[in-house]
Write a structure and sequence with these properties.
The complex is a heterodimer of chains A (446) and B (487).
Chain A (H helix, E strand, L loop, with lengths): L14 H4 L8 H11 L12 E2 L9 H10 L1 H4 L5 H9 L7 H14 L11 E4 L2 H12 L5 E5 L6 H4 L7 E5 L11 H13 L4 E7 L11 H14 L2 E5 L15 H7 L8 E6 L12 E5 L2 H10 L7 H11 L2 H28 L3 E2 L7 E5 L9 H15 L1 E2 L1 E2 L10 E5 L5 H27 L1
Parallel strand pairs in A: 1-11, 3-4, 3-5, 5-6, 6-7
Antiparallel strand pairs in A: 2-8, 7-8, 9-10, 10-13, 12-13
Helix pairs in contact in A: 6-13, 7-12, 14-16
Chain B lengths: L14 H12 L12 E2 L9 H10 L9 H9 L7 H14 L11 E4 L1 H13 L5 E5 L6 H6 L5 E5 L11 H13 L4 E7 L11 H14 L2 E5 L15 H7 L11 E6 L12 E5 L2 H10 L7 H12 L1 H28 L3 E2 L7 E5 L9 H15 L1 E2 L1 E2 L10 E5 L5 H24 L10 H4 L10 E7 L2 E6 L4 E3 L2 E3 L3
Parallel strand pairs in B: 1-11, 3-4, 3-5, 5-6, 6-7
Antiparallel strand pairs in B: 2-8, 7-8, 9-10, 10-13, 12-13, 14-15, 15-16, 16-17
Helix pairs in contact in B: 1-13, 4-11, 5-10, 12-14
The chains are: A alpha/beta (446), B alpha/beta (487).
Cofactor (chain B): pyridoxal 5'-phosphate
Pfam families (chain B): Aminotran_1_2
Keywords (chain B): Aminotransferase, Coiled coil, Ethylene biosynthesis, Fruit ripening, Lyase, Pyridoxal phosphate, S-adenosyl-L-methionine, Transferase
């Protein structure tokens, strides 16, 4: 964990403005710079750096484009004269009703109808980034703690902590049980926070997990729910990858668990969703806080004034997401394509002698390079990461940037490029591993 | 169970502001379906120039970006917090055009945010620590209490302005406010002004701008100039931006220049509040850098950035729009001012904005805020106009009201003025006829004095079935002064 030194005000600026809590000076971003300076291009720069650090979903754009082609009127202001004016004036923080209904219905479809969502509980925010920060403002005071299982999305360090002043205390997860959260790890994290005089306000899980690329098992969800109930704290379930599960029957949302318990104690639970990953529309800034707690819904809604979704975008997506024929088809095909990509990358890595965590969701796989580290430490990990960046020219994300407690794991994205580019990346990695083995063999006989 | 911010302590939204809304929502005027309903005059929206936008859209159908696959995909993936370059370039040029090109802006110093609401809060996060204060001239936009203080923990200390000099900012008022902050042990980090002013509808004079620059120089603090109404200046003395004054005083690239920040938005000038287009402009690299990262929490939809970059790059359109929009605002303002005059009501002399600052002190039963509330209730319930009482804007003198004129048709405005005129007539007749003044007229059931809880913070209202209820800050649901319990 980085040591935070409180900065004195610089030239009359706030402490927040000059702190490093935004986290952009971490190695996570150095890889980006390397990519920006030398980006791969099939034709123009075939030896450039291939971006595998960006969790974007580019595999299903054609489906969205086809929809727009056949629904231009519905998706824009159409022939209605008042359509544009009404839409341009609409800044009600309740959000467009048709859009909230469409979001609720889409969330139900993604969960195969196994949970119901009430449009009145959908609070709209400009992206999940805003939703997570907003929820933190509502659930915790400065100096309080949220427990988050490791490894976790590096952006949380900024989103949950920067302007809120809230702390993250890690729930350490290990490869020995596939990085699943255990009751002991939960208790341990809670005790650790308490020993540091921090009031724990809640647990935040990402399900399916980023960076693991795996769903949380129902049994584990129940244990987490029991834990937060016992401690009388909140549970935030970030389910932005719920539509990216390869087999629909393998995802259990916290919503399902709550429904099966008749919503007992549900007012401590809140779900974050977004269209950035499942629909591949990060630029449109569409996120939501879904809460079972009325006061949270009320407060979150008022706070959403700081981060409303453009009404132009709400209108476009309201029409698209209420088209059940489109959404059903999209969800099904998107899953299949992601699964295929996943199988390709896992097979390719295996050929190169690299194992991955068994995943079933998301836009990335969790790769294990620990057998190949010169030393089983963070610096050993960063050493091999640097090599991969410079020699293999792949930008992948080191586990340390995700606060993983074990060295040698890497998140590798597979959905933000063409199939051909993925093959190029895999063959480069294969070559690199071959070379390495040959070099080692050579060394061992000298 | 929830944070301190989630409970209503640090909130301070004025109850009257929302009660008027509540009444309007229950009984909104419609020229055909509800001609006796309440006319909304509390909403600072610009609805006068939509036809210009609509015709531009008709001639530029591709700007909605759903037709071209490659553009659509590019935009859908574009989430860079530096913003769409084409949009930022077009926006700074538009800002320059509004200022008659007397100042130019560097797009690299511009940070895009989801509306001015987000821009103001973000700037507060960058410039003030919790417990530190900004000075604001009164009267000011009621939303500032939430935007500047709620999640930031910052404080607002008022700079009292008075009608005796047209509510202009004076040196002594600035100093008094600073002293007041010190007395409360609050460290002052800056001054925030709205120029042109909401609710006054006036642009700051050169003298006031120079006063401000001198003040922030001597105190070594910041100045935020919220210029979201800069495109609505419809007559002389014209708009002078703080940047222009700094330039003319040879203060560019100095320390004080780095402490002046501008907030802009397209919600008022272009009438597009739903699209959430706001911006921060700063000459301080650290502020730009921090604000840019913070904008992650409130980015503008790339689809909308694209639409506006196309629109604002059309110079023929922007030139014509700015000119025509100003003309229409001027006409509306004059129409309302004349009608008010005929009814014996004066306004503050104004040259900008979407509203007038109306003087109804002579209609108060007593020169107090209770008197103001009483008059306001009559105007809402009896006259059927939702206008904003000065107390909701923290005005230090009772009897002033903000009345919007650009969010309705001409006919509706005429009707509103007729109603007001009749009301004033009847009030005059009454005060002439009755010896003992009856403070309340009309339906006693509706006008019984509002219970104490109205002066609690009202959080919002909630719709349950077909009924709307007001939700108090302590979560009590109330309807017609009766508490209602819901499971």
């Amino acid at each position: 964990m980085a040591i935070e030194i409180v900065q004195p005000s610089v030239a009359g600026l706030s402490k927040i403005a000059v702190s490093e809590t935004h986290g952009e000076n971490s190695p996570y971003f150095a890889g980006w710079k390397a990519y920006d300076e030398n980006p791969y291009h099939e034709m123009h720069n075939p030896s450039g750096v291939i971006q595998m650090g960006l969790a974007e979903n580019q595999v299903s754009f054609d489906l969205v484009e086809k929809y727009l082609e056949s629904n231009q009127e519905a998706a824009s202001w159409g022939k209605k004269v008042s359509g544009f004016k009404e839409n341009a004036l609409f800044q009600d923080y309740h959000g467009l009703l048709s859009f909230r209904k469409a979001m609720a219905s889409f969330m139900e479809q993604v969960r195969g109808g196994k949970a119901r969502f009430d449009p009145e509980r959908v609070v709209l925010t400009a992206g999940a980034t805003a939703a997570n920060e907003l929820l933190t403002f509502v659930l915790a005071d400065p100096g309080d703690a949220l427990l988050v299982p490791t490894p976790y999305y590096p952006g949380f360090d900024r989103d949950l902590r920067w302007r809120t002043g809230v702390e993250i205390v890690p729930i350490h997860c290990e490869s020995s049980n596939n990085f699943q959260v255990t009751p002991q790890a939960l208790e341990s994290a809670y005790d650790h926070a308490t020993s540091m005089n921090m009031k724990v306000r809640g647990v935040l899980i990402t399900n399916p997990s980023n960076p693991l690329g795996a769903t949380i098992q129902r049994k584990v969800l129940e244990e987490i729910l029991d834990f937060v109930t016992r401690k009388n704290i909140h549970l935030v379930s970030d389910e932005i990858y719920s539509g990216s599960v390869f087999h629909s029957n393998e995802f259990v949302s916290i919503a399902e668990v709550l429904e099966s318990r008749n919503y007992k104690d549900s007012e401590r639970c809140h779900i974050v969703y977004s269209l950035s990953k499942d629909l591949g529309l990060p630029g449109f800034r569409v996120g939501t806080v879904y809460s079972y707690n009325d006061q949270v819904v009320t407060t979150a809604r008022r706070m959403s004034s700081f981060t409303l979704i453009s009404s132009q975008t709400q209108l476009l997506l309201a029409s698209m997401l209420s088209d059940n024929e489109f959404t059903e088809k999209y969800i099904k095909i998107n899953r299949e394509r992601l699964r295929k990509r996943y199988e390709t990358i896992v097979a390719g890595l295996k050929k190169a002698g690299i194992e991955c965590l068994k995943g079933n969701a998301g836009l990335f796989c969790w790769m294990n390079l620990s057998p190949y580290l010169s030393e089983n430490t963070k610096s050993g990990e960063l050493e091999i990461w640097k090599t991969i960046m410079e020699e293999v020219r792949l930008n992948i994300s080191p586990g340390s940037s995700c606060r993983c407690s074990e060295a040698g794991w890497f998140r590798v994205c597979f959905a933000n490029m063409s199939e051909e580019t993925l093959e190029v990346a895999l063959s480069r990695l294969h070559e690199f591993m071959d070379r390495r083995r040959r070099d080692r063999n050579l060394l061992s006989v000298l | 169970m929830l944070s301190a911010k989630a409970t209503c302590n640090s909130h301070g939204q004025d109850s009257s502001y929302f009660l008027g809304w509540e009444e309007y929502e229950k009984n909104p005027y419609h020229h055909l379906h509800n001609p006796n309903g309440i006319i909304q005059m509390g909403l600072a929206e610009n609805q006068l120039s939509f036809d210009l936008l609509e015709s531009w859209l008709k001639n530029n159908p591709d700007s909605a970006a759903i037709n071209h696959h490659s553009i659509f995909k590019q935009l859908a993936l574009f989430q860079d917090y530096h913003g769409l370059p084409a949009f930022k370039n077009a926006l700074v040029e538009f800002m320059s055009e509004i200022r008659e090109n007397k100042v130019t802006f560097d797009p690299n110093n511009l940070v895009l945010t989801a509306g001015a609401t987000s821009a103001n809060e973000t700037l507060m996060f960058c410039l003030a620590d919790p417990g530190e204060a900004f000075l604001l001239p009164t009267p000011y936009y009621p939303g500032f209490d939430r935007d500047l203080k709620w999640r930031t923990g910052a404080e607002i200390v008022p700079i009292h302005c008075s009608s005796s000099n047209g509510f202009r900012i004076t040196k002594s008022a600035l100093q008094e406010a600073y002293q007041q902050a010190q007395n409360q042990n609050l460290k002052v980090k800056g001054v925030l002004v709205t120029n042109p002013s909401n609710p006054l509808g006036t642009s700051l004079s050169l003298h006031e701008l120079e006063l401000l620059i001198d003040f922030i120089s001597s105190k070594n603090i910041h100045l935020i100039s919220d210029e979201i109404y800069s495109g609505t200046v419809y007559c002389s003395p014209g708009f002078v931006s703080i940047m222009e004054v700094l330039k003319n005083k040879g203060l560019m690239n100095t320390e004080v220049w780095k402490r002046v920040h501008i907030v802009y938005s397209l919600s008022k000038d272009l009438g597009l509040p739903g699209f959430r287009i706001g911006a921060i402009y700063s000459n301080d690299d650290i502020v730009v850098s921090a604000a840019t990262k913070m904008s992650s929490f409130g980015l503008i939809s790339s689809q909308t950035q694209y639409l506006l970059s196309e629109m604002l790059s059309d110079k023929k359109f922007t030139k014509n729009y700015l000119r025509e929009n100003r003309k229409r605002l001027k006409q509306r303002h004059e129409m309302m001012e004349k009608a008010l005059q005929k009814a014996g009501i004066r306004c503050l002399k104004s040259n900008a904005g979407l509203f007038s600052w109306v003087d109804m002190r002579h209609l108060l039963s007593s020169p107090t805020f209770e008197g103001e509330m009483e008059l306001w209730k009559k105007i809402v319930y009896d006259v059927g106009l939702n206008i904003s009482p000065g107390s909701s804007c923290h005005c230090s003198e009772p009897g002033w009201f903000r009345v919007c004129f650009a969010n309705m048709s001409k006919e509706t405005l005429v009707l509103a003025m007729q109603r007001l005129s009749s009301f004033v007539d009847s009030m005059t007749k009454e005060s002439n006829q009755s010896r003992r003044r009856q403070p309340l007229i009309g339906n006693p059931r509706r006008l019984k004095s509002l219970p104490k809880w109205v002066f609690f913070t009202i959080v919002h209202y909630r719709k349950v079935g077909e009924e709307r209820y007001v939700v108090r800050c302590d979560d009590q649901l109330v309807s017609n002064n009766k508490r209602v319990d819901f499971l």
